[in-house]
Amino acid sequence: MSRVQVAVCGPSAADAPTLAAAEEVGRLLAERGAVVVCGGYGGVMQAAARGAHAAGGTVVGILSGDDPGPANPHLDIVVPTGLGQARNTVIALSCEALIAVGGSWGTLSEVAHAVRHRERAGRPARVVWLDGWTIPQAPDAILAADTPAGAVDAALSGL
């Protein structure tokens, strides 16, 4: 039986409300049986991993470097890629849905890869941005959420 994989992306440096939202997203995903996939380091990635791990979920960290040492301590599976920022593509394509929490250039690249992959595959949008950047060129490709629960509901809807 396959479990749904949901990526949680966001900046490595974030304020306290963003980190709290990411932790709540991770917890809610784990409680609903989803595997959380993230970049494996600090900030939003660590907060989401902490929330999922505390709720008994499974967390996969896709690292940009080839050394597993800097991975955050809340990961169950660590995948050191040595790919640098190209690992953002791996994260975006390793999931059935992606939730971005907050905004940064790296987050934007993960969102863009996820949207493009879904468009090419002819699948509906499963890309949700919680408190993120507005992208007027893609109003139907990225779902907006106002709360962690709303983001998780939107990401898992129909899966």
Task: Note down, in words, how this protein is organized.
This protein is 38% helix and 19% strand. The protein contains 5 helices and 7 strands; from the N terminus they run E-H-E-H-E-E-H-E-H-E-E-H. It has helices spanning 16-31, 44-54, 87-93, 105-121, 148-156; strands spanning 5-9, 35-38, 59-63, 77-80, 97-101, 127-130, 143-145. A 7-stranded parallel sheet has the order 4-3-2-1-5-6-7, with helices on both faces. Strand 5 (97-101), helix 4 (105-121) and strand 6 (127-130) form a beta-alpha-beta unit. The longest helix is centred in the last third of the chain and has 17 residues, at 105-121. By secondary structure, it is α/β, with parallel strands linked by helices.
Number of helices: 5
Percent strand equals: 15-25%
Secondary-structure-based class equals alpha/beta
Mean residue pLDDT: 92
Largest beta sheet: what is the strand line-up?
4-3-2-1-5-6-7
Largest sheet: 7 strands, parallel
Tell me the distance between the termini.
14 Å
Rounded to an integer in angstroms, the radius of gyration calculated over CA atoms is 14 Å
> Helix proportion of residues, in percent?
25-40%
Q: Show unreliable segments.
A: none
Q: What is the chain-wise order of helices and strands? A: EHEHEEHEHEEH
List keywords for this structure.
159 residues, alpha/beta, seven-stranded parallel beta sheet, 7 strands, 19% strand
